[in-house]
Design brief:
elongated; 2 strands; mainly alpha; 7 helices
Amino acid sequence: MENNKFIITDDLVASREQRFMNFILDFLIVYVIWLAVGTTVIIIGEISGIYALSNWAESTTTYEKLFFLIIIMFSYYFLTEMFFSRTFAKYFSKTIVITKDGLKPGFNAILIRTLTRFIPVECLTFLGVNVRGLHDLFSDTYVVRKHEFNKKKGVVFFP
């Protein structure tokens, strides 16, 4: 019986620089989405004459703004990684999220990855000795270079 188990090697794993660029770009994208949602709510309130809506959006507290930012951040990471195995930043850095077996992560792995991102200073954990962040370790996933992964795995297309 032949063992075709896929092994992730160091040459496949995304670099610290790629991971840091992904973090910065993803944060900027989430921030722009957050601003766009807030601005849209205000504009809809003004155009439709529902001034209570625009007044509410303009008078939200810092905690309410943080709450909405967390919801948008959770939705962004969960939905993009669940459906595409990558965020928009990972698309530009040509990296993807895979399991230790070289497969697309499932619902539980992506949920754990997304929830772990909310641990304070978690975003800096991949800058240490291990290039894998806490969200990678807890979900047992890897961020790898897409093209090198496809060559090694022998696939033509992987999301």
